Automatic annotation (TrEMBL):
Similarity comment: family membership: Belongs to the binding-protein-dependent transport system permease family.
GO BP: any one term: transmembrane transport
Keyword line: Cell membrane, Membrane, Transmembrane, Transmembrane helix, Transport
Protein name: Sugar ABC transporter permease
Any one Pfam family match given in the protein's UniProt record, by short name: BPD_transp_1
Organism listed in the record: Cytobacillus dafuensis (Bacillus dafuensis)
Membrane topology per record: Multi-pass membrane protein
InterPro entries in the record: ABC_transporter_permease, MetI-like, MetI-like_sf
């Protein structure tokens, strides 16, 4: 073979070897692939459950929002009719109004009360553990049971609260049957039920604040209010953001206390979006309208959460 042919043969052989070396993964690449496969294998159960209980229901509900279906007859495509009927329904607008009223009142109330209780309890020393336990009891107690207890407490004639008010000469209202007071009754129960959860989050946040900041404030002669506004609240900004977003989502999802205590009454004065979804689906058997309402509710919660995060993000210091 000629010299040029020999060179060509060597070049061809080296190209072949380079191609084969690229095709066959190295040990390092193989280990990376093995780690990735093992990671996905560990994530698989969670991903499967997430797909079954969230992704599939969300997609199916989105499809049903354009259908007319009563769980018995065949589905019929109706386009945007479900959304149009909701927007022309006064009950929908009343439910949306009640939802926002409940959220606007309960979210600030639970955050402020929980923060003040956390600061107070943490200043008590060893006995603070007892108060943490007592304040967290409503959170872990069954909502159905506590709601039934509150129904008896708020009874218009024989309720303990009205009897206590009568002792001081105040005629208590018919809390749960008066449209003017029914929503406020639920607000009271909602704040009592959820303040313990926010309280625990704030307690955890307080433990993460450097004690030297308070010692420096004491040296400068700062009072309790000054330390609260200049140290505690700014240092709790990440906790405040988390508590705010979670509280808003939780307040928009209120259902159980309404289902037990008022069933949306009287005269839809306590009806909220989530409870209306339940009514449309399981009382009126209009799955299409229920799914359309669920989509509207999802969009509202998503927008509110994004707006809150964007507004609070600039004031949050990590």
């Amino acid at each position: 073979m000629s010299r040029g042919g020999t060179v060509l043969s060597l070049e061809t052989t080296s190209d072949t070897l380079n191609t084969n070396s690229k095709a066959v993964p190295t040990k390092k690449q193989f280990k990376k692939l093995q780690k990735a496969a093992w990671a996905y294998a560990l994530l698989a159960p969670a991903l499967i459950l997430y797909s079954i209980f969230f992704i599939f229901p969300f997609i199916f509900s989105s499809i049903l929002s354009f259908m007319q279906w009563n769980l018995i007859s065949d589905m019929q495509f109706v386009g945007l009719d479900n959304f149009k009927s909701l927007f022309s329904d006064p009950v929908f607008w009343k439910s949306m109004k009640n939802t926002f009223i409940y959220a606007i009142v309960t979210v600030p109330a639970t955050m402020i009360i929980a923060l003040l209780l956390a600061v107070l309890v943490e200043s008590l020393g060893k006995i603070s553990e007892l108060y943490r336990f007592l304040l967290f009891i409503p959170v872990v107690t069954s909502t159905a049971i506590t709601s039934i207890i509150w129904v008896h407490l708020l009874h218009g004639n024989n309720g303990i609260i009205n009897q206590l008010l009568a002792i001081v000469g105040i005629s208590g209202p018919n809390w749960l049957n008066d449209p003017k007071w029914a929503m406020w009754s639920l607000v009271i129960v909602g704040v009592w039920k959820t303040v313990g959860y926010n309280f625990i989050l704030y307690v955890a946040g307080l433990k993460g604040i450097d004690k030297q900041l308070y010692e420096a404030a004491d040296i400068d002669g700062a009072g309790k209010w000054r330390k609260l506004t200049s140290i505690t609240i700014p240092m709790l900004s990440p906790v405040n953001l988390f508590v705010l977003v979670v509280s808003i989502i939780h307040s928009f999802q209120v259902f159980d206390i309404i289902s037990v205590m008022t069933q949306g009454g009287p005269n839809n004065s306590t009806n909220v979006l989530v409870y209306q979804v339940y009514q449309e689906a399981f009382q009126f058997f209009d799955i299409g309208r229920a799914s359309a309402l669920s989509m509207i509710f999802f969009i509202i919660v998503l927008i509110v959460a994004i707006v809150q995060i964007r507004l609070m993000e600039s004031k949050t210091h990590y």
